[in-house]
């Protein structure tokens, strides 16, 4: 696996990947609203949550275990890192929406639509806050040595090859 040298760039580039996933999910949601076809929605959601469980799990570990501890007690322009971590939890838990697809009657379809919509909005806003306040704040406030330390830990995390949940 490639060695990470610029940890903030790596985190941002993951955010771009996640936004692409969101775009796909948004299209799937629009199609579901129109056709109500449960099977296609299920496929899209399974793909999205596969991404969440694998790639995003590693990214969230980078953030929660490596980057965020260094930002504790820092003024990040009015956001609270605890809220950001809660959003990670929310996203993981939101996979339950797949359960709703099992017996999708009219009412349940509405519920699926609003849940998926909320997931998309929440994750998009989450990424925006992290890009601006977390990664922006880290770029301003952390030293070159601290950033090198983050890169080292991120590389270490990947060297085991055992991540995701
Ligand atoms: Fe995050
Ligand atoms: Fe992130």
List keywords for this structure.
165 residues; 6 helices; Four Helix Bundle (Hemerythrin (Met), subunit A); binds fe (ii) ion; elongated; mainly alpha
Explain this structure.
This protein has 165 residues and is an all-alpha fold. It has a single domain (7-159), classed as nmb1532 protein domain like (Four Helix Bundle (Hemerythrin (Met), subunit A)), CATH 1.20.120. The chain is built from six helices and no strands. The chain has helices at residues 7-35, 38-71, 81-93, 97-100, 106-141, 144-159. Helix 1 packs antiparallel against helix 5 (106-141) and helix 2 packs parallel to helix 5. The radius of gyration is 17 Å and the shape is elongated. The two termini are 20 Å apart. The model has no long low-confidence stretch (mean pLDDT 94). Bound molecules: fe (ii) ion (2 copies). One fe (ii) ion binds at residues 11, 15, 59, 63, 130. One fe (ii) ion (FE2) is lined by residues 11, 15, 59, 63, 130.
């Amino acid at each position: 696996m490639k060695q990470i040298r610029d940890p903030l760039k790596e985190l941002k580039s993951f955010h771009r990947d996640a936004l692409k996933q969101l775009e796909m999910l948004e299209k799937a949601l629009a199609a579901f609203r129109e056709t109500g076809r449960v099977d296609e929605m299920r496929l899209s959601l399974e793909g999205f949550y596969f991404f969440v469980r694998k790639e995003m799990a590693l990214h969230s570990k980078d953030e929660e275990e490596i980057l965020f501890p260094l930002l504790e007690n820092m003024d990040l322009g009015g956001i609270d890192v605890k809220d950001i971590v809660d959003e990670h939890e929310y996203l993981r838990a939101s996979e339950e929406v797949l359960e709703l697809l099992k017996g999708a009657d009219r009412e349940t379809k509405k519920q699926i639509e609003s849940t998926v919509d909320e997931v998309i909005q929440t994750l998009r806003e989450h990424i925006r806050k992290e890009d601006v306040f977390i990664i922006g704040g880290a770029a301003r406030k952390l030293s070159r040595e601290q950033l090198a330390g983050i890169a080292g830990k991120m590389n270490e995390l990947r060297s085991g090859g055992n991540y995701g949940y």
